[in-house]
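lol ok so funny story. i was supposed to be doing the assay writeup but got distracted and ended up predicting the structure for this chain instead. priorities right. anyway since i did it might as well share w the group, maybe its usefull for someone
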Amino acid sequence: MTKELLVHEKINGTDYKALILNAAQCLEDNENQINELNVFPVPDGDTGSNMSKTVSTAAKELLKDDSESLDTVAEKTAKAMLHGARGNSGVIVSLLFRGIAKGLKSSFECDGKAWAEALEQGVISAYNAIERPAEGTILTVARKCAEAAKQAAEEYNNFQYVLGVAIEAAEEALDETINENPVLEKAGVVDAGGMGWLLVMKSMYSALTKENIIEYQPKEKAIKKERADFSEFETESINFSFCTEFIITKLEPNSDTSPLKSYLGTMGDSLVMLDDGEIVKVHIHTNEPHQVLGEALKWGIYENVKVENMKSQHTSKIVEIPQSKMKDYGIVAVASGDGISQIFTELGCDIVVSGGQTMNPSTEELYNAVKKVNANTVFILPNNKNIIMTAEQVREISDKEIVVIPTKTIPQGINAMLAFNEENGVSENEEAMNELSRSISTMQITYAARNSSFDGMDICQGDYLGLLENKMIINHKNIDTVLSVFAKEIEKVGKEAISIYYGSDVSESEAERAKEYLVSLLPNAQIELYNGNQPVYYYIISAE
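and the output, tada:
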């Protein structure tokens, strides 16, 4: 690198803005290329998509800003990324830029040394936020990038030079990820997040030198309603007037409550009944709540009962009756699929944020949901391992007490809802929700999004993939083969209460056939079928 040609000794806020805008456009243009590096063949909340959306949030904010002061622009960048962070990769990028903003605090402009220190602060911020940082990832690439920058700044205190050396180090570090991470080594690819960070650094350099610079163009956002319009349907269209919910402690633990469920099925609609062996939790819309409650008494002792007139509630919504007083607790859950969302709502969840696999919500979306909950303390159920870090970031921007229950699957989230008791304290609820969510086994059937060789398995695009606790245990062309493997796993751990949630790509008749097949394999199990209508997963199966 010829030092005489490196004219950009320092940068200010205007320069930094140009660097971020070019990085946003670069990530957007290369989104699919980064996504293709994802090793796991399951449809995922892809790394490239999450990084692109996170940085684009900052770009959109900076388009409104003309500040020349570097610390102001860096702080706005970090704040916007915090709100827009999606998925683990997006959160890590936001943490890197948060640390950079911290390193540039009170700086109108920065030279090579200041930039190296800012990169170092970014790495510290990211590493400190992650409980068990893994090497051979974006963290490794960012760390080696910052280490090289610091050494370069001592040699020649020039912003352009330091950034250039950092990029060279990032390229070497990215190539090395294939040897540092056993999963990447098997797949023969470099780390997707590391590739994204390298592209961020390269695009910044391009903007600095005016080479390959692209004007950032934000994508148009689809118009959607902020809330449902209750005046669009008549009160008379509500067929069953009373939303009836109750919890009973069973008179005979582990007894078969399918007769109770069959009876309740004749008494109304929107029935959700969950039995964990000792307690039964029921939600139903009915015109005869007294009969429903009378029948339930034959099976157990009431712990909690709530009956609400939905027609009165509907009328209240239309006339905009003021919100009730602040309550102690609220719950926000992330889920996709009308059926799954309805189950969470009927179990007492205040707001269900649409999201999950391939649709990771941003920190801002979760924050807005929390803001709408009329409660002092809000529990968040991410229900996906790639959303947990995003949920954790809500604490940084909310003035409410936020408790994240790190649920990784929908069944874990449903079990956490069952454990919640509004009479208990925050720590009691947190402990109970964590404990019950971990007690359930989750199996999922999805499809291979691409040809792949993973963990010794040769996978063809379109294969059925069977996941146990998010780890792939089988791939096959025949779904019955996958179900039979699941049945063996269920037998192995001795679980007998099975719930099957079927997805939007599965017909009711197909789902019934899958249930009957599992019944034939597990004759002693109590198996229930629900229409989850979820995307991506043909079946989500819980066993307890």
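The CA atoms of residues 502 and 531 lie 5 Å apart. The longest strand covers residues 300-309.
back to the writeup now i swear
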